[in-house]
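Case study B.
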Amino acid sequence: MQRLKPFITFGLLMAVFMLSGCSDMVVLDPKGPVGEQQKDLIMYSIWFMLFILLVVYALTAFIVYKYRDRKNHKGYDPDNEGSHLLETIWWIIPIIITIALAVPTVKTIYSLEGPPEETKDQKPLVINATSVDWKWVFTYPEQDIETVNYLHIPEDRPVLFKLTSADSMASFWVPQLGGQKYAMAGMETELYLQADEQGTYEGRNSNFTGEGFTDHTFDVMAMSDEEFEKWASEAKAEAPELTKEQYDKLMLPGHVKEMTFSSTHLDFVNHADEADYAIKARERLGYEPLIPHSKEAKKKREEEKKKKQEESESHGDSHAH
Amino acid sequence: MKWDEFFVTGDPLIYGADVSIVLTMAGILFYMTRYKKWKWLWTEWLTTVDHKKLGIMYIVSAVLMLFRGGVDALLMRTQLAVPEAKFLDSQHYNEIFTTHGTIMIIFMAMPFLIGIINVVVPLQIGARDVAYPYLNAVSFWTFFIGAMLFNISFVIGGSPSAGWTSYMPLASNELSPGPGQNYYLWGLQIAGIGTLLTGINFLVTILKMRAPGMTLFRMPMFTWSSLVTMVIIIFAFPILTVALALMSFDRLFGSHFFTLQGEGMDMLWANLFWLWGHPEVYIVILPAFGIFSEIISTFSKKTLFGYKAMIWSMLLIAGYSFLVWVHHFFTMGSGAAVNSVFSITTMAIGIPTGVKIFNWLFTMYRGKIQFTTPMLWSLGFIVNFVVGGVTGVMLAMAAADYQYHNTYFLVSHFHYVLIAGTVFGCFAGLIYWYPKMFGYKLNERIGKWVFWLFTIGFNVCFMPQYFLGLDGMPRRVYTYSEESGWGPLNMLSTIGGFMMGIAFLVLVYNMYYSFRFAKRETTGDAWGGRTLEWSTPAAMPPFYNFAKIPEVTGLDHFWRQKQEGKVEKLTAKDIKKIHMPNNSGVPFIMGSFFFVLGFGFVFDWMWMAIIGLIGVIGTLIYRSFEYDDGYYVSVEEVIETEKISK
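Model:
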């Protein structure tokens, strides 16, 4: 047993490390009921997994230690080829564990299809989220406003996201609010999320979409109901209108800054019904995709690099002031 | 495509690769010519139909691909070591993770295992070769050509950059123009033909060519795992062939199966890809399971625990492998019912896998465990693979998967199963059967260094990635911000990655060291083995394997013969003339035409593709009219080879 001590200590240390690290990791630090349910399921499963690891490691350590080839070896039985009892045990135990995991999993899967239990009587806020390489367009149909690359949502109220994409397959994910779902051209998928705390949360596309994928991100600001209403009506009153020309320009692959508009692109297109809109818009604008190793593409990359560098330098300056 | 853009330029890394390719080629040309090796290469290797030599060529190619894929991995880890690193730009990083994934799965893991299957299975079942030796050579050359076609992409035309999954519409002409994605399509298509042929060849070999007395339930576990793998290959690979063909039509001929325009359906690609892709995972894990079964039994000096349960669990896993593909995209919004069903089927795979783990553990129970290097890799497999297994069950829980999907949690999980399962299995098998292939063992002391360096490096590299995933770090990002706080764990992960790289170099050094200094084996039974491959009198079996086909009376036949002191000694009376197949250069030539065909399609040069196609069909026609019934090895030659005194 003396030799097993380091293994046991290591196991305990790992458990402590995991538990203490938990609260820092975004997935395990949810700020809404959707993420909360997922965190509970994850923690529930982690205990089972630690139990399984413990059993297997203890058994391995015991067998390997006891039956290692040495002098005075005892218990060697070369024809020991099976045991119905033992084998039945380790068919049954995994089956039980699987059932124990499957029941809450299925429950949670069904629960996540609708709005959270505690706020299901409230009318959810509907937001259409559209991914275009490599930006997010958010439409508030009821408020008749549109934003690019940022979201404002009221707290304690379910938000129903209607997801679609103008081009490549993206995945809409705000880890602290809850799990992700794909946004696909010619399709509409639905995702309920809710924030219980005010604050700014990072959101992103997590599904690889090519060169600009890494910066395919957005911020979510959760605020009080009044603040949200105030912001929405201000945007409606003050922001410029979104023209079709301007929207077509958004269809070009690339990154843009945050934007606000007092009308929505749903007036001229819904990408869930028109999968090839962006491709056609690019053709109208004379955009041609560049082969990654062609001279033009390299030149473009160099220019963008320079631009980025200049931006970060000027950003640094403003900090210095 | 303009001619001045034919070669990839502008990056010092690429220029370095260009120079090293040219130097290596020149070095090989010089060596071969100086030492007059060309004829030897042609007659002994390029035209061989011997399963052992083809197996060795598979393994050598796989080790080269492991090096290439490993360099890709280290480039990625270097870029990710610190936040906002400028080592690679986004496009370059995307190309590297795409080639890393594709090469490691298709051109490293699979050929490595198929190589070991090639060397071992005919010997284990007491056969003189596979059922279709000529076809076996075609398999190898199509695989090799597919791999070479895919590999030149980084110096000619540019590598694919849409990920090894190549999801549409990202992989379409509109979003990924140029030859890169075509390399993926044609490299995989050509290699896939070889894999499918291997599937058919070994299925027939195992079903029809077993030695007398070896019933299905007397087959060694590695042969069983190979049989099950071949069945999966035969069902899974046609799906890949069709999917790749449809995407090729989209890219080359303007069809709209998966595109944005013309009502194409991108979700169809994801479904087809994983309908092949998930069974593929089991294609690369089941043979590894078989290898561990052999090794654990041999070095515990004990028969395998629960032989029949092992087989049934493998058959269950094979069946399940076709019923779980949706778990790769729970987040596609298929609805609660679909996700629930696939959650449960996926978790259920854990049951037979768990059974296998306990059976391995109890094979050691009441055994006499020897800690040889193959055994160390097998123990390392159990301890590390379980981590991959339990996190796999966590990922199977769809509601939780919405949070793990596309993150480093997933990346870490599949590296824990593919490295601790497949790669450990490949290393274990290579070391275990090395004396069968080359007549001497790899040095055990250096081998243990490799094991510990690699295993520790592996955990240092991938354990932090679980935590990065839970902290929201998505996979496939080429950099991350300082504020994300992912820096320290990424640095740790990179250090682990380089430890694995060093372990690989030590492994290669061990091959050189052992080639120079290892004691040559004098018998065929290097480890005290249990199965027929160890029963040949010579360390390396002659080209016909067995002078006299053994008669099998039960499981672990050779082991029991040794226990009872009844190992047969060959006498001159036993020897009859042996029928063997002739060598042929046609598979190699056919492979070369496949290269022309693939290269033509990659650059959309139809004239070239058509020349290649005519060549391929021409070699098929030529073969059809070739009346080659093989030849006989005379009794005298066998007696001389076997050193039987009259």
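Chain B touches chain A through 109 residues (CB under 8 Å). The remaining cases will be described in the next quarterly update.
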